[in-house]
User: What shape does this take?
Amino acid sequence: MSDPIRVTVWNEFRHEKTHPRVKEIYPDGIHNVIAGFLKQQGFEVRTATLDEPDHGLDDNKLDSTDVLIWWGHMAHHEVSDHIVDKVQQRVLNGMGLIVLHSGHFSKIFRRMMGTSCDLKWRDDDYERIWVVSPGHPIVEGVDQYFELPEEMYGEPFDIPQPDELVLISWFRGGEVFRSGCCYTRGAGRIFYFRPGHETLPTYHNENVQKIISNAVRWAAPRFTPVRVFGNTQPVEKRA
Ligand code: ZN
Assistant: This one.
C-alpha cells in the first residue's frame, strides 16, 4: 500500500468565533469538519489557521503537505504575502491546492490565477450543481446533479478558462456559475470548488464531502517532478 496522501486544511477561523449561527454549525471550525471526513477516507490530515504563527504554515508543515485546502473570507488581507509566496512556490513545484467558496478572493488564488477572480453574489438562494464532465475523477460517485441551500455566486467569474470544467451551478434566482474548475500551474494541480457559505451546513453534505475527497486524490502529486531551469550546456556535444 502506498503512503497516505498528506492533507493540510487551512481555515481563516474567524466567523466561527464571532457569529452564533456559524458557531452552531461548525463549533470547532470549518477546518475540523473537513479534516474529519478526510480522515475517514484514510488521508493523513492536519489543520492550520490564520491566527497561528506563520498562519500554521511553517516550512516543515508545507514541505510535508501533498494537498493544501483553503477556506477564507473576511480576513484575506491579513494573510502575509511572505506565506503566499511560499505556498505559490510549493504549488509550482507540485503541491496540490483546493480553494473553497469565498477563497476565490484569497491572495493565493488570485496569485495563481492572475485575474481579479471577482463574481456576482447574493445571500439566501438555492443551488443545483450539475456534473458537466461525467467520468472525471473529481465527480466519481456523484449523480448527474445535487442541490443545496446556498449563497448565490453568478457569472461572469473573472478567472482564466479552466483546463477542465467539472461542475456548473444553476441558482433559483436564474444565475449560473462555473463551480468546479481544474487548473495546472507549474507542476501543481489546482481545483476551485464553489459551495461552502459559512452560515449553511454545506460541508456536512455527502456530495460536497465526496467531491472534496476526490479532489484531494486528483490534486495530489504523483511523483517528485524534475524541473531544471536556467543557463545550460548543450545536450549534444560537438565533435
Ligand atoms: Zn459565502
Notes: The chain has seven helices and nine strands.
